[in-house]
């Protein structure tokens, strides 16, 4: 079983402006891309660059390659059985336009052959669309077609956060 998962958004902004979004990843309140309000925080043990280790619970990775303002690749370190990578790239799309392109490629092993399609993929897809909404808002000031979580994603998030006190999640669930 091979997984190839792509998300992208055409943005009315030049490549440098879109690329600058990648450079803000894991910069806390200054992060313009990561949807930190509704998802576990993205954290690294040092500034972005090859060898930085981090992730967002329960997914971990190491920065395998980074070209500031253009491209970053993360190799999975967890969960067990996630053998592959994901990356963000800025692609040219004509004058004053650029594509923010995300690719995930992996060969799930063991239990990941079940957990990827049943839980991780729907959550991953929702998170990525939220991140692309943030990119669009950061570059244009608005989002033409905001992403919406499916009932299944809302259920998965409710199960994952049960027992944790996360008022932001409760607020986010009620708005979707």
Tell me briefly what this model is.
The protein is α+β, with helices and mostly antiparallel strands. The chain is 33% helix and 28% strand. The chain has a single domain, classed as Alpha-D-Glucose-1,6-Bisphosphate, Chain A, domain 4, CATH 3.30.530.20.
Provide an overview of this structure.
It comes from Streptomyces durbertensis. This is SRPBCC family protein. With 176 residues, the protein is α+β, with helices and mostly antiparallel strands. It contains four helices and seven strands; from the N terminus they run βαββββββααα. It has a single domain, classed as START domain (Alpha-D-Glucose-1,6-Bisphosphate, Chain A, domain 4), CATH 3.30.530. Strands 1-7-6-5-4-3-2 form a seven-stranded antiparallel β-sheet. α2 crosses α3 (151-161). The protein is globular. It starts with a strand and ends with a helix.
